[in-house]
Amino acid sequence: MDPDPLAARDGVGDDLPPHCSLMEVHVGELKQLFNSLDPTPFHQRDLDPNAEAFIVGWARELHEDRPLALLVHLDREATGDGVAVLKDAVRVFFEQRARATRQKLRQLLRNGRTSLVIGLAFLATSIVGGNLIAGLLGESRFGGVIRESLLIGGWVAMWRPLEVFLYDWWPIRGEARLFDRLSTMSVRIAQRHAP
Predict the structure, then answer these.
(1) Most CB contacts within 10 A, which of 78, 162, 171, 185?
(2) What string of H, E and C letters represents the secondary structure of 109-126?
């Protein structure tokens, strides 16, 4: 959505980039955007979980090739350096989320590599053991069943590493990229003027 020219002109904060993907939030006062249980100083506070879910959910549906912008409509006037405080809090919050998400991805890939080594070792052992047992039992059905069972078990052991390296990593990487975009978005406050 293109930025509202009236809100962009009357608001305070960052200029909204042309053709940006604009997210708009309406709150009574600025402190509603922050987690009320977080005792840290205002500029380092976490976003309210509902505000975060709203912003992240909206951002997921926007064009990835356009810059993001957040326009906060306030009923009450922001006090002091409210715009700078909000911008810093949003930037720091989403930078921390991006770092935590990348850490989660590194841990997943580390577990995937460990699972791959274990899976390959088990598969090799299953193949060798199955062939050895089948050789000892000759061409009997029982030997064939044991060999095939061990082979199937070996391939099942490869399920987790394949799941990690084929499917699990890319949604987490996409989440980290989204948090990076959110940490650099323009933040503007439009205050409702008294009638």
Answers:
(1) 185
(2) HHHHHHHHHHHHHHHHHH
Question: What Cα–Cα distance (Å) separates residue 106 from each residue in 103, 169, 194?
Answer: 5, 9, 51
On whether residue 104 sits in a domain, the answer given is no
Of 62, 64, 66, the closest CA to residue 17 belongs to: 66
**Planar angle of CA 108, 126, 111, nearest 5 degrees:** 10
Q: What is the pTM of this model?
A: 0.78
Range of the domain at 93: 5-99+184-191
Residue type, 106: R
Q: 115 and 87 in one domain?
A: no
* pLDDT tens track for 61-106: 988 888 999 999 988 776 667 777 888 888 999 999 999 999 999 9
Number of structural domains (the chain) is 2
| Residue pair 105/60 in contact by the 8 Å Cβ criterion | no
The tokens describing 181, both together, are 């975009």
Phi, psi values for residue 31, rounded to 5°: -65, -15
SS3 27: strand
What long-range pairs does 103-110 form, CB within 8 A, spacing at least 24? 104/172, 105/169, 105/172, 105/173, 105/176, 108/164, 108/168, 108/169, 108/172, 109/164, 109/169
Residues 6+ apart with CB under 8 A from 77: 191
